[in-house]
Every structure is written in C-alpha cells, then in structure tokens.
Amino acid sequence: MARIELSGIQKKWGAIWGVRDVNIDIADEELIVFLGPSGCGKTTTMRMIAGLEDPSEGEIRMDGEVMNDVDARDRDVAMVFQGYALYPNMTIYENIRFPLRMRDVPKVDQDRLVREAAAMVELGDLLDRKPGALSGGQRQRAALARAVVRKPQVFLMDEPLSNLDAKLRQAMRIQIKHLQRQLKITTVYVTHDQIEAMTLADRIVIMEGGLIQQIGTPDEIYSDPANTFVAGFIGAPPMNLIEGRMEDGIFTAPSIRVEGLIRNLSGPVTLGIRPEDCHVAGAEAHVEGTVFGVEPTGDMTYLTINAGDALIEVKADRDYRSDLDVPETVAFDPARIAFFDTTSGQRIR
Amino acid sequence: MSDPALTETGAATAPAPTGIRRRRSKRMKTLFPYLLVAPAVIYLLGITLYPGIYAVVQSFYAVKFGPWRPVGFENYANLMGDYQFWGALWNTFVIGSISLTIQCVLALTLAFYAYRDPWVQGWRIIFLIPMLFMPSAVAFIYKLAFLDARVFSDILIRLGLIDGNLSIQSSIWGSRALLILADVWQWTPFLFIIFVAALQGQDEEVEEAARLDGAKWGQIFWNISLPLMRPVIAVALILRGIDITTMFANVFIITKGGPAFGTETISYFIYRTGFKFFNFGYASAASVIMLILTIIIAQLVVKRAFRSGRA
Predict the structure, then answer these.
(1) What pLDDT is recorded for position B117?
(2) Cβ contact (<8 Å) for A87 and B210?
(3) Where in chain A is the domain with CATH 3.40.50.300?
(4) Most buried among A107, B63, B149, B151, using CB within 10 Å?
(5) CB contact, 8 Å: B306 with chain A?
(6) Structural class in CATH, domain B75-308
C-alpha cells in the first residue's frame, strides 16, 4: 500500500561512510531484499526508511511524500528485529496489542485484531505466556504478529531468521512470503543469506561498501551479474572467475583455452562461468587440469579442478568419483560464459 | 597432560616417577579453597555474627553496670508499652519513607532524561560527588546553613521573602524536613547512577520497536523501561531503605532527636537508651526488634519485585 523512493541517500558518521549513494524505487506491494555482507549498509538503509536513523543526504519518499522529517512512530512502518525485540515484561497477547494501544485503536477492536494476527502465525495457544517462556521460532512468530496486527503501510524485516536453526528458517521463510502475498504490504527485507534473498525476493538489491552493486530479480542477479562482486557473492559455490587474455575470439589462461567467442574483445579479461555450466568433458575440453578435490553431497558431486593458477569449481554428476591429482578435462557451456573487465570488475556485454 | 581427569587418576594409582613431585593429597585438595577464604570468613563472622548473638543474649538480661540479671522477656514486654520506642519507630518510618520516595522519584526522573545523553555517560562520576562527602561533614554543613548560622534564613530575608529568622529548630516538621533534605541531597546521586546504569543496560532494539509501534518517550518509559527496572529499583530501595532505617549521624548532629522527640529515629533511641541511660539490655532488645523488622520488610520487597519482574 505504499511506494517507497530513496533518492541520493547518504549516511555518514563523522568520517565513516555507512551508505554512500543509494537510489531505489520500491514498488507498491513489492517484496524487496537488501543483500550484502556485514557492514555493507543494508541495515542502515532500512533503519533510515524506518526513521530510526536520519540520512545525511538525500530524500526518502513514501507515496510521493517526503518522509525525512517525519518521526519514526508516525511513518506507519512496522519492523521485525533480528533479536525479536519483544517486550519481556508483557505477555505475548499484550505484546501484540501494544501497537494498537499506542495508536488508540478502539478497545472493542483490539481483542479481535490481536487474535486474528496470532492466528495468522499460529500462535493462538501461547498468548498468555511471556516471551521468556517461548522458543526462538515462537518468539519470531510473535514478533511477526506484532508487526502485522496494525496493517502498516510498510514492513521492515532486519535479518529476522538469522537466530533460528536451518530447518525452522526454511519453514519461517515460506510463512513470511505467504503472509506478505496475503496482506499485500510493501516489504523491505534485509539479510546476508543469499538463499533467503533468492527465495523470498521480487527484486534483490545487492550492496557492498555502502553502494548498490545491482538491482534485479533473483533470476537476473543469478544469471546476469553486473560485476565480479555480485558474481562472486551469489551462488554456492559462486561463479568461477578466471583471469586471462582475449585475442581473436580466443580466451586463454594457463591450462585453459576457449575458442569461438565474440571477436570484439581483446586484452586482459576475466571469464565468469557458473559451476553448473561446467561439465566433465571428453574430447572437446576447454580446461585441462588435475583433480584437486571431490566432494559428494548425495544429489551431486562438487569437483574442484586445478588448472594453472586457478581452482575451478564444477557441479558434476552425482555418480562422479575420481582419485586426486589425476588429469581431468572440463568443458564450459559457451552460451553461459560472461566476461568482466579485469581491473574494474564491471561486466562487459 | 591435556586431559586433567587422566592425569589425576594416573597420579593416584601409579607410583610417581622419580623426579616428579606428587600432587597434593586428595584431602588437602578439597580443604584448600576453604583454607583460602577462612581468614576473611572468620573476620566477618567476628565483627557481625558475634556482636549479633551478644546483643540477642543481652536483650534477655537487665544490664546496668553491675552483673547481668536475667529478666526473660521483660525487656521486650516493656518495649511494647514504651511510647518513646513507638514514637521512634514512627519517626523512622515517616522520615524514611518520605525521604526514600523523594529520592527515588527524583533519581528516576533525572535518569530518564539523562540516560541517552553521551555527556552523562562520560561524566557520571560527577553526580557521585555528594556521596563522596563524609556524612558527618554533610550533617554539619546542613546544621550550619539551616540552624546555627542561619544562612538559609538570611538568604530568604535578603530576597524579601520572609521578615524574621525561620525557627526550624522549634518545629517538628521543620526539623524532619531538614533531615529529609540532607538525606535526599546526599543520596539521590546513588540512586541516579544505579537507575542510569539499568536504563542504559536495556536492549535498545526493544525501545526502537516501541517507537515504531507508535509509543512516545513517556509511554515507552512507563510501559517498558520502568517494569523492566523493577528488580533494580527493588535492590536500590532495599539498600537505601536499610541505610535510612539506621539513620543516625544526621539526627545526632543536626537535631539530637528534638524537638520533643519529633525526629528521634530508632537508631537514636537505641543509642540514647544504651549510652545515655546505660540500659544496655533494653537497648539490645530494641535493636533485635529492629533487625527482625528490617529483615521481614527486605524479604517482602525482594520477593515481590523479583517474582513478577521476571522476563
């Protein structure tokens, strides 16, 4: 129910940059994920949307209205914190009711709304407990209920799942996405977990060093990375980045030779190829190296090839087995190869 | 050597190789920690438990210069009918509760306005200064300013607010107010420091969550910060409360319990009975009652505060 525009946002603490230059247009009802390593400015950007932090420069607009000077509590924004931030002195019921009480929702509606929100996250039978008596997942759901209960314009979620174990995290991920679709509330979700980002997002904003590296759908980010940072950050294992030279449509690096590529490139370039686009080859190989590591995971086998000075990750067949240090050849899927400028790291299209 | 359990059993069963010193015997090992703390424990028991027991025993005797004469519960029975004892209890309660309430409210208010201020965080030690003064020195300053040298009256006269000297000394409530004022001045900083620390220790995320939920600062304080501070407030009040129930120096120096016993606290009553009238058994009985009362009240406060203040 709200469109958020960030234009020219900067945040500086003394000489330290938090966020350098952020411009994002978040569509109504969109679920956008800020993804990046610790200290990349994603949480700071979210806190500026919330009003908990003031930008040093730039404008925050919601539905076209400038929000910079609007106090946090008047922005109609609900936030789910990493540490849940439930009120430890209140029961879960009182926790969920708190935003309603503070906003003078009529008493008659309060009870109904609280119970609706609790039912939405399946918390109905825990309403009399205090947060201290709940497990991590239950606390997380209580925090969610407290955020949805007053139907805010915007949801902000700051690494809400990072304190949960892997199994619970997946279950909660699905619940969050479902809830967001159901309520149709514009949502900003901050995480450093790429799986969360890929699975939840309508669009992902990848940040690093206070700058946006790329904005795009999960598909775009994965198959069409804008620079080597994005290529190396997304995917597990990430994209292989091989530094070499281009001449006459031929890419060469120690032990690596790829022919028949675009001819308008020459000089030093970085070749990027995803592990699943590499195949253990027979005759038509691009890489001739030795086996460095074999890691079967059950549904596939991670194969690492030592080629010259590079280690190349390959997602091999589940049945693939090999001794170490024996010669092996690998072929790339030519259609999936991406090139980056070796010095700037930017994609060459 | 990496596994302590192994080396322990090894040393106990196998004969020690020559040149390696045997570990301490098992018995010594269990005793050793107790030996280390023994001097401190003996010292503490000597200055607290021994006089305590001595006082309890003495409270069943009539002790006046001569040999002790056992009187059973006579001292206690007499105390029950002693209007001066009840008066002292009442005075202690009135002066103590008013003083404690004012200190607590003042300290909480100051802490609430100051705890996010970086200046306060850096300079909290400044607020401790009144506490660092010797209590008797503070008492003498108040005595000088309000009674003997009439500095306070003088200022009011010069400001044209009053015509003649205030006669604080002759008014029961005036004297009580003076004792309260001195206590509040000296001890509010103590509570302030404790409350500021408690507020600063609270999770900032919780506060931010409340802000986004639409709460104003005052609402956050009443609904969240204050309830979470209950255990801290309880401990602070008990510490201060015990201090105040034993209030002696200020009474001794400023008012001497007067006028008309109107500011005689229980400590002063005990002192007067013991060291002015040399009625030691009677004074001991009064202090035993006081001790029991204090323990009961402290227990009640602690229990209440911690049972429901739990997260």
Answers:
(1) 78
(2) yes
(3) 4-227
(4) B63
(5) no
(6) mainly alpha
